[in-house]
Amino acid sequence: MLGALLDAVAISASFFGSTPTSGNLIAQVVALRYEEFTKPAKPPAWPSSFQANFTEVFGGFPAPPSTGAWYYHYEDAVHQWRADHNAPQSNNFCKCAKPNTTETCQLFFSPTGLFVNFPSLRECCSVCAAKDGCSPLKPDWLSGNSPVRTPGFDIIQGRACYQYCTPGAVFNDCLSYDENGVPCQYSETSTFAPGFTVVHNLTFTSWTKHMMHLLLDALMLYGAWHPAPASDDAANAGSGISEITYELPAPPPPFPSEVQATFTETFEGYDVPDSSGAWYYQYHVHGAKNWRVDHDTPQANNFCACAKGDTTETCSLYFTQGNLFVNFPTLGNACCRLCDATTAGCGVLRPDWLSAAPVTHTGVDVLDGRTCYQYCTPGYQFDDCMSYDDYGFPCRYSETWGDVVHNLTFTSWVVQAQRPATFDLPSPACAVDCPKLFPACMMP
Q: Domain of life here (predicted)?
């Protein structure tokens, strides 16, 4: 069987040696490629840098499920590990720092110790020192400690996953890998008293060896929020705590030529339920141009309503170089052509649709713990906006008409080659026109 093929972006490693520069794209594409993993006869060591997203659940005591992310860099003299636990988190380190909150919490493991940051509360503190075990895990923390293979395997997200464990400072620490060496789940278990055993699972929803450009240095973060008074400069010399300031990412960066994203979808001023969805984007000046947008049930998208106004079932929009097609995969793969690409609003967005347009900076929001700067430009029907954080990483796409605001808040944004089949029309019926074409379908 071929190794797992992970579309990934090779990111220049040079940024690790310097402070991030505001306005830079989060990822500069060096190459789009497939990566292969070998079958794990034993657990592999971690790569020197990676990032991963996960879902977080506990067993043994009541705690709501949550999500989070890992960002890891362990190379030469640089040892950094950041673990984000999103609200409503129940992480033990977060509770040590601030026991009465479930707000998003970021753990910054450094060679000197662990710092805990609550971005929405703008509070940060040191919890423990490296000598107490509070430092970044080494890449071989599992593979170099005679791990014990748990008998059998687990099926996790459709993958057969093999678990290896080693005793940790407090918990029995385990990591499972699929047959291609891709991590499935991190798990830690401890029995604190007879009948009281806690199981803590992080199930990975993504894992890439090429880490995005994110702030990993807690002391720099602390310095940004708590600049030392001038009179204290001498006392703080050499402490590693320094003042840094961020500027707006200006101008807003263009889209990469290929990207995949997931989002939550909400409306303001319009009483419809929240939903979720995904973007698949491909735009090459001298090649393929495709954009597929999936709006999951119970969607309230205007294009979907034009094609089939009596349903909130999942709807996929296929923007092509020639036409916009609307597909309802759970309704017998119903599909129709809504408009041609020459109709305003029906074509594939250009990568520079915002960056090359006259834009207005309209404000600052804190989204999922990130400071995000919004830029807007008039669209065909709506005022179209996109917000980015300090590193040019997208936060939210937003469009406004009258008192209604439509938000797509990104939960992931991965620069990677899209599989050609992603943009294949699902049915021959797509060639048939919808009962009403856009924009006439928008009229009462």
A: Eukaryota
Is 29 inside any structural domain? no
Sorting pLDDT into bands at 50, 70 and 90, what band is 13? Answer: very low
Six-digit token string for 363:
């404000």
pLDDT digits 0-9 by tens, 373-387: 899 998 877 889 999
Burial degree of 192 (CB within 10 A; 0-12, 13-18, 19+)? exposed
What is the C-alpha separation between 442 and 354, in angstroms, rounded? Answer: 25
Helix (H) or strand (E) holding 201: strand 196-208
Taking alpha carbons only, the member of 154, 136, 161 closest to residue 43 is 161
Contact in structure between 49 and 72 (CB atoms under 8 Å): yes
Question: What is the total residue count of the chain?
Answer: 444
* Mean pLDDT value across residues 34-60: 75
The last residue of a domain, from among 149, 179, 210? 210
Model confidence pLDDT, tens digit, residues 269-290: 989 999 999 999 999 888 899 9
The CATH number of residue 276's host domain is 2.50.20.10
Give residue 266's identity as a one-letter amino acid code: T
What's the domain range around 119? Answer: 49-210
Taking the C-alpha atoms of residue 177 and residue 206, their distance in angstroms, rounded to an integer, is 13
**35: exposed, middle or buried (C-beta count within 10 Å: 0-12, 13-18, 19+)?**
middle
What is the 3-state composition of the chain as percent helix, strand, coil, each rounded to the nearest 5? Answer: 10, 45, 45
